[in-house]
Structure formats: C-alpha cells, structure tokens
Amino acid sequence: MASEEKNERGCLFYLGIAALLLAVLGALFMVSIGLMMKKSVDKFTDTKPIEFIDQPIDPDYIEAVKLKVKLFSDAVKNGVDEIEISLNEDEINTLIRTHGSLSILKDMVRITLQDQKLKGEVSLPLKKLKTGILNDRYINGMAEFKLAHENDKLNIHLESLKIKDQDIPAQFMANLSQVNFANEISKNPKANNAMKYILGINVEDDNLIIKAGKRN
Known about the structure:
By secondary structure, this protein is an alpha+beta fold. The protein has one domain. The protein has helices at 2-10, 12-37, 41-44, 59-77, 89-98, 170-176, 189-194; strands spanning 82-88, 109-114, 117-125, 138-150, 153-163, 166-167, 198-204, 207-213. The protein starts with a helix and ends with a strand.
C-alpha cells in the first residue's frame, strides 16, 4: 500500500497537467452535446480539425524538459516537504506532443499561458462523444480558464469560450462558468489521492506553477 501511494505521489505532475487538459476538453464536450441538441451543428462545427502550427523540437530540449519534470516527480515521490516546478507554455506543449502520458492529446490541444490565465486551443473530434453521429465533424475553439487552489481544493473555471471564432450562446456560457472542471479528478480514486499532495497550482508571469509536498 505504501509503495502504491508513493507511485501516486510521483504521478502528481502528470495528474495536474491532465486535469487542466481535461478541463479544456470537458468544456467543449459539454458544449458539443448542447449544440447538437440545439441543432446548431453547422454553425459551430467544422469538417476538418485545426492544423496546429508546430515547430520542430530539438531532442536535447525534449530531454531537458522531461528531466525537469522527473526531478520534481521524484522529489514528491520520495516525500519532500515542499517543492515547486515552473513550466512555460513551450515546455507544456512539448510534453503534450512527446510524452507518453499526455501525447494521446497531441492532435487535440495546445496550451497558452497569459494574463494569469490558462488558454487552450482545442480541436475535439465529435466521434469522441460516441453518439454514433457526426463522427466526421470537429469542434474547434479557444477556451480560457482561471486557476485557483483554495482550501486544499483545485478550482478550474471557464471564463470564456469561442467556437469557430464565435462566442457560444449566453445560456451555455452562464451554466459552464459555474462548473469546476477539476472535479473530474475526484472520479478517479488514485488521482484523487495523489492530488492531496498538491499544495498550490496557478499561473504566474506566464508560467504554470505547481507546488507539492507534505501537508501539515
């Protein structure tokens, strides 16, 4: 049991990043269902995904980013009192594109960190909804989130969402802004337990800051 808990602590970084990506995708997922019910498919969906314009990544840079994350994860895994990791958007997107734990999303999301907020450019295949319809269409948009970590709880709230450069209907936005998309973590017992070691997560100076360690 102790070994299992130690491994969960070591996965903290990827659980944290995954939570943010799930938030971005979750927002579009909920909107997708609503738009289909409102029969707004043609207005808000595309027949092609976003083609992310990515520059080649130097292999040495990839290894440096992965080592940075590994040192952080190992420290948490070994029970450090407190440690902090700071990553810019290039480092996060490098991990999304290249790391096995995140690369399943490499064709669906790119992250921007700006003005103390996390922004995600997303291309969500509607086949992911598993409705059996509209499998050849995509929701392409830009979501903006505010992050906070208060009372030992991660909060990820949607502040704005554009699809095909259009604001989504006001009734959808009003409902979505009340949702804490970080709650998705609580549905996974291992992830939920590991998140107990997160001491803080926020965006500062265009960097994602994650603090982790022992709780008093």
